[in-house]
Amino acid sequence: MAFPFRRFKNTRLIWLLVVGVVLLFGHSFGILRPVESLLARVLTPVMRSVTDLSSVFHKSYSDSGINNYPELLSTAEADRRRLVMENAGLQYLREENRVLRKYVNLFDEISHKYVLARVVSRLAPQNKAWENDRLVIDQGSKQKIIPGLLVINEEGLVVGRIVSVKDSLSEVALLTSRDCRLSVAANSSQKTIGIAEGISGLTVGVSFIPQTEKIEAGELLVTSGLEPDIPAGLAIGRVTRVDRLDNKIWQSAVVEPSAALDVLRIVSILLPASDNH
Amino acid sequence: MWLVILINAILIWLVLLAQTAVWSLPAGFNFLNIVLVILIYILVIFGPHRAAWWFLAFGWFLDIFQFNVFGANLLALGLCFGIVFFLLSNFITNRSLYSIWLLTVVATFIYDGVLGLFTAWRFNDWSIFASVHGELWRLIANLLLATVLFYFFGAVSKRVRPVFLKDFKRF
Hints:
The complex is a heterodimer.
Chain A: H1 10-28, H2 33-63, H3 69-85, H4 88-110, E1 114-122, E2 134-137, E3 150-152, E4 158-165, E5 170-174, E6 181-186, E7 192-199, E8 203-210, E9 220-223, E10 235-243, E11 250-257, E12 266-270
Antiparallel strand pairs in A: 1-2, 1-12, 2-5, 3-4, 3-12, 4-5, 6-7, 6-9, 7-8, 8-11, 9-10, 10-11
Chain B: H1 2-23, H2 34-46, H3 48-65, H4 72-90, H5 97-123, H6 132-156
C-alpha cells in the first residue's frame, strides 16, 4: 500500500505551471527584471554577511594544514596584541576602511577605472564550481561590467575574471578555475610567455611556453597585457615547478597564485580602457 | 493568509541563507544541498500543496542568485518535486529514515543531473559528467544531512516517525 497522500488537485498544478511559466517568460522578456534586481539588491547584504562568516571558517580550515608553527606563533602573538588594543566592534569597519584606502592608492598608481564589489557568495557546486573556484559579487551590468574583465584584490594581485553578468550581480571565475585563462609574462622580461589556466580549483598551470624561454621556479608571473581590457604587469603568482622535456614543443609550469583566494570580501573590477577617459 | 505567506517567505529566505553559507565553505563541505533536503522534508511533512510553492520559490530564488541558464533551477526542482511526489504517492509506505534516504538519492541525482546538463551546455564542456566521485560525495553529504534532520524532526514532531500499515491516517 502506498503512502496515504492527498491527491494533488489539477487546478493547483495548473496554477503552479502558470506561475512557473510567468516567471520564466517574465525574466526572458525583461518584465520581471526590476523585481529580480530589487530582490538581489535587498537580499545581498545579508548574504554577504553570511558569506563573510563562512569565509572565516574557510580560512581557519585552510590554515589548519600549515606546519610552520614558529612563524604562526609569532604572527598569532602579534595579532593578539593588536586585537587586545582594538575595539572588537570597530574592527570590521577599520578593516574595510583599510582595504578601500589601499584601492584608492592602488588606482592612483595604475590609472585605470574600476568598480569595487563585495563578495555575495560562492557558487553552488552544481554550476561547475565543485572546486569552490567561483564567486558571486554584488555589481553587474548596471555598473558597466562585462564578461572577460579582470578582477583584482586590494593589493593589485589578480584574483580572476568575470565570466557572466546580471543586472546587479556578476560571476567571477577565480584564477584556479579552468574558465579563467590569461596570457602571462615573466616579470623579469615582461615578454608574453604562455597561457595561464586554473587546475582543479587548487593552483594555476601555464602552458604553451616556448622551449626557448628560460623560466625558473620562483619567477613572478604577471599579466602580459596582450588581451584587450587587461593591463600589463599585474601579479598573478610565482612559479613553483617547471616541466621541460626536450622532446616536447612547449614547456609548462605550475604557479601558486599570489592572492589569497579563500578570504576575499571586497574585490575590484578593472573596466575596459574605453571607459577610462 | 498574508501572514502565512510572509512566514513561509522568511523561512525560505533563512534556508537560502544557510545554503549560501554552505557554498562558501571549503570544497567538500560545500557539497551539502540544504535546499533540496529541506524541500523533501517539507513535502513529506506538510504535503504537496505547501511543498509545491516552496519548490517554485526556491527555484526562482536560486535562478536569481546563481548564474546557470535562467530556469535551470526551476526546472530541476520542478522535476524533483514531480518525481519525489510520484514516488511518495505510489511506492513509499511510511515516513521512515529509509524512505527519506531513497527520496534524497533520487532527488540528488535528478537535481544535479539537470543542472549538470545545463552547465555542460552553457560551457560546452561535457567532461563534467565524468566526475562520478564528486556526485558520490554530494550524495553522501545529502544523506548525512537527511539523517540529521530526520532525528531533529523526529524529536520535535511525530510526523517523520515510521508509520506501519495499521497506523495509516489521512492527513
